[in-house]
Amino acid sequence: MLSVVGVMAQDAVLPQDDNIEVETIETLTPNEARKQRGFSTDESFVPKGQWIFGGTASYSTHTNKNYKLLVIDNIDSEGYTVKVSPMIAYAVSKNMAVGVRFGYGRSLLAMDNASLSVGETNMGIDYFHKIKHTYTGTIFWRPYIPLGHSNRFAIFAEVQLSLSGGQSKVVAENGVVDGMQNYTGTYSKNFGASIALQPGIVAFVTNNTALELSIGVFGIGVDRVKQLKSQVEEGKFISSDANFKLNFLSVGFGVSFYL
């Protein structure tokens, strides 16, 4: 039996033989091509209709007594930072979830002494206290790509749309007036919005519990800050940024429950 594969010349004539078979090259559709690359799969890592609960939390403190950092001497300070970020999501289809995440952060820096000496220039801080609160709301879309045929490991690329706000209060020394120590206070309010891409990896440690690790690689954001100093002076600050790089300040590690 003869077999002809490929494209024949325009003037070629096939012999009149009923036993000849012509094989044509199959053309893949876009969806079939994506499936071969692994962006769509028959593996059900997160089935449709599954609820996902989770979040992250962190707490840190510091205390410095007569500490030296590079050119800054005699640092006496203490402070703390606490952050919590619960999350809830729903799998709208196989291996694809949408959800919301809320975040709250609070930090305190109380610096009672620090001195800076560079050449003949000497500067000092005798009192600087700052407390800050931040709030964040995020909606996200997360597709999962299972690693091989495993139902324990997968990568994801989370697209986030976030709105944030916060306030801070600063009290600092401002010299001596009429023999008495003078202090100034600054109150600030800020608002921001951002779009970000944060890929990561998820690993199940039990049937319903998973560990997640992610890092930001792309982001576009804008922030607006309004200040009021000593209830008299006002100031404004607006900034925007766009980046496409690893952002080690946005590394996330958390625990999620798939129910």
Q: How is this fold's topology laid out?
A:
Layout: E1 3-5, E2 21-23, H1 30-37, E3 51-69, E4 72-93, E5 96-118, E6 121-125, E7 128-146, E8 153-177, E9 180-204, E10 209-229, E11 233-258
Parallel strand pairs: 1-2
Antiparallel strand pairs: 3-4, 3-11, 4-5, 5-6, 5-7, 7-8, 8-9, 9-10, 10-11
Q: Assign the CATH class.
A: Mainly Beta
Would you tell me the structural class of the helices and strands?
mainly beta
Count of folded domains: 1
Number of DSSP helices? 1
The portion of residues assigned to helices is under 10%
Helices and strands, in N-to-C order?
A: EEHEEEEEEEEE
Shape, please? elongated
Proportion in β-strands: over 45%
Could you describe the 3D structure shown?
With 259 residues, this protein is mainly beta. It contains one helix and eleven strands; from the N terminus they run ββαβββββββββ. The protein has one helix at residues 30-37, and strands at residues 3-5, 21-23, 51-69, 72-93, 96-118, 121-125, 128-146, 153-177, 180-204, 209-229, 233-258. The strands form two sheets. It has an eight-stranded antiparallel barrel. A hairpin with a 4-residue loop joins strand 9 and strand 10. The protein starts with a strand and ends with a strand.
